[in-house]
Amino acid sequence: MTEEHELGEPSDDVVHLGHFLEVAQAWPETDWYGRAMAMLHYGAFCIERFPFEETFENDLAATVALARSYRQLQAAWVVTTHGFLAEARNLLRAVYESAGLARVLAKEPKLAEQWIRDGKWFPDVRVRQWLSDVRRDSPEEVDKYQHFYAEASAWAHPTAESCMGQISVEEDHFYLNPTITFDEQACQETVALIASTALFACFAFRNAVVDERAIDPAWRRDMYDLAREMSRESMPHLDRDWEAENAHYDAVMANLRDRRYLNGQLRTHPRAYANLKPQEPK
Asked: How far apart are CA 114 and CA 29, in angstroms?
C-alpha cells in the first residue's frame, strides 16, 4: 500500500474532484453542459413504457441507442471531474456512435430489426454512408462527421497524442507524472467538448423524429439558442417563425390520438392487411 492510503488520505483523483468542483460552476461550459443534458434527457426518456404489441423496432432501437448516449455523457462528466481527461474523450467517441446510430435506426425499420436481432455493432462508416445515400447530406457535411470521428478515434486508441498527456517536459528530461494533477484549462476544454457532444446528441434526436415540427417548439428554440451561444455564430438556417411553429404544434397535439387506438384503426381501415381480401368470383 502507498503511504497515502496508509494514512487514510484521499486518493489523487478525489483531490482532483475537490479542485474541479471549486471552480467548474463558474465556467460557461458547465452551464452549456447542464442545459444540453436537460434537453437530451427529455429526448431520450420522454417515453418510458413500450407495450409489446404497440412498439415498432425502429422506435425501440432508436430510443435505447439515444439513451445510451445520455449515459455515456454522464460517464464522461464523472471521469472528467476525477481527472481522467483522455478517458473522457474516449467516451465521447462512443456518444457520437450511439447518437448517430439512433437517428439512422429511427428512419430504417428493417435496419433496426436487424440491429436488435443480430446484436452486432454497426460501424460508423455505415452510418455515414446512410447520411450520404439516403438522407442526401452534402459531401461537406459527411466529411465533418468523418473528421470528428477520426479525431475522437485518435483519443480512443493508444496514440501518442492520447498517451503523452501523462508526460511533462522538464529542463533536461521527460517526467512521467504518477499522480493526477489538476489542470484547470485542460478540464475546461474537456467540459466544452462534452457539452458540444451533448448538443450533437440533441440534434441527433431532432433528426430521428418523423419531423422536427413534431417536437415541442420551446425545446427546439432552446436548443437552437444554445447552439448559437456555443458556436458564437448566427446560424440563420435555424431561424423559425416561432408563432407559426407553436400554432402548428398545438394543432397537431389536438388531433393526435393515443397509440392504444392503433390496432383498432388497423382492423377497420379498408387498406389494412386483414381487409385486403380477394374478390369473390362471379
From this structure: 38
